[in-house]
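Hi P.,

Sorry for the delay on this. The queue was packed all week, but I finally got your sequence through. Input first:
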Amino acid sequence: MSNSPIDITRMAQEARALGITTTGILVNELEISLKRDEAYLARREARGRYTPTDESMARTTLAKALCIDYLRRVPENTTL
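Then the structure:
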């Protein structure tokens, strides 16, 4: 991982420009990402492959699940 700081403000602006403008849309995007990550990890496991990167990715999927859980408590049409 790079030591350079992540520009969250710039990335958030890019996300809004792409149409990720409400909590409902954000939850949908996170769910798509979560499903893709879980499918990838399942394929890796089925092939008998598991690396520290896979472990990190598995932890990130859990963090995404927590974000989804939290965001579902916010009204779906809340503007980001």
